[in-house]
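[job 4471] stage=fold_predict status=RUNNING
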Amino acid sequence: MREARLATRRPGRQARAAEKAVIPLWLILAGCGSASATSVGPPASPSKVVPAGPVPTQPFVDRPPGPIAGSYRVACPENEGEIIEFSLSKGKAVGRVVDAGTAKKYGFQNGEEVFRLTSDSYGDWVGEVHFRSVTGAQHWDGIRMVATDKGLNATMTNEPCYRNMPRVR
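[job 4471] inference complete, writing structure tokens
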């Protein structure tokens, strides 16, 4: 009974849409269809298909890393007096606390490793920074830094103390 009812029903929205089959534009441009919705097959007049050239890409950037080796003063009042020294070894930079200053309240100690960085193709230094809070919570956060002759700037970090750190002469 149900099958008989289905056979006598008016065509629904999907059936009406199928009657007005629209050929996708990419098929038309490829010469496999026509602009007319009722005709099927190659277009009435031959179309010129221009072969696609190579996909344009952004040129690869390969800049030398900024000069990170040296000592820098941490630039926030809560860590006043803290100095970090960066050393290079096999393309990697390690930052250690030289003078903890007021950062001792967070548990930082002289000689402690707080940065692990490598250079990327843009000349920036990316890696991890050791975070500590007054409550004793600690973890490693991601960081991106730009080194210049005048200082070190953390451009991507959750820690504002490492932004605009001047170089110690």
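[job 4471] summary: The CA atoms of residues 5 and 17 lie 21 Å apart.
[job 4471] exit 0
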